[in-house]
Write a structure and sequence with these properties.
Helix 4 runs parallel beside helix 6. The protein starts with a strand and ends in a 10-residue tail after the last helix. The chain has 10 helices and 6 strands. It is of the alpha/beta class and 215 residues long. It has a single domain, classed as HUPs (Rossmann fold, 3-Layer(aba) Sandwich), CATH 3.40.50.620. The longest helix has 14 residues. It has a 6-stranded parallel β-sheet with strand order 3-2-1-4-5-6, with helices on both faces.
């Protein structure tokens, strides 16, 4: 099974990496791909340049078995839609390999506002990363899809290439890229919130300096 975790990663931090590792280990994934987006659809646009965010990701996962940085969305023009990335991956790995799209609980609540959500579920399983105590909005569409698609156990994901929904508990780390950017902009150190090689790159490149980030 291959996991896919997308995001701006502006910058990548320990909150991203810890939940990715939680899912990687819990599901016994063969590979977990971190996919930095190019043009955001559901969030503000990234501040760091594409090549800087790619470099931060590569520095962050250096030495972590099974983690791969996938820069395909940075090479693709236009808005970064998950369905396009999953379509490309499906063409590459074939029809039988299970793909698991990792999404947070808040994103799952809004999943049916995404671009072509039903096609996404034809291409991949949804792995909803649930933090302890976090709830879900049980609107009728969401409730119906959970009832019909929910996997009974993690092994169900390996039995088919796509279409199931799995809720995975993950470690709760209250870290936000927005807060890290603001700390850097105001001269504070974000050390221990993100990997040291990422912090070194931020300092070397002078990223996020020169004013408060209001996002």
């Amino acid at each position: 099974m291959i996991g896919i975790l997308g995001g701006t990663f502006d910058p990548v931090h320990n909150g991203h990496l810890r939940v990715a590792l939680d899912v990687y280990q819990a599901l016994g994934l063969h590979e977990l791909r971190l996919v930095p987006l190019n043009v955001a659809v559901h969030r503000p646009q990234p501040i760091a340049a594409a090549e800087q965010r790619l470099a931060m990701l590569e520095a962050a996962i250096d030495g972590q078995p099974g983690f791969v940085v996938d820069g395909r969305e940075l090479r693709r023009a236009g808005q970064s839609y998950s369905v396009d990335t999953l379509t490309e991956l499906r063409d590459e790995v074939g029809d039988a390999t299970p793909l698991c799209l990792l999404i947070g609980g808040d994103a799952f609540n809004d999943f049916f506002t995404w671009h072509r959500p039903y096609q996404i579920m034809e291409l991949a399983h949804l792995v909803v990363m649930r933090r302890p105590g976090a709830g879900l909005q049980r609107n009728p569409v969401l409730r119906s899809e959970i009832e019909s698609r929910r996997a009974r156990c993690a092994a169900d994901l390996g039995a088919s290439p796509a279409g199931r929904i799995w809720f995975q508990n993950v470690t709760q780390l209250d870290i936000a890229a927005t807060a890290i950017r603001r700390m850097v902009a105001t001269g504070l150190s974000p050390r221990y919130l993100l990997p040291e090689p990422v912090l070194a790159l931020i300092e070397r490149e002078g990223l996020y300096r020169g004013g408060s980030d209001g996002r």
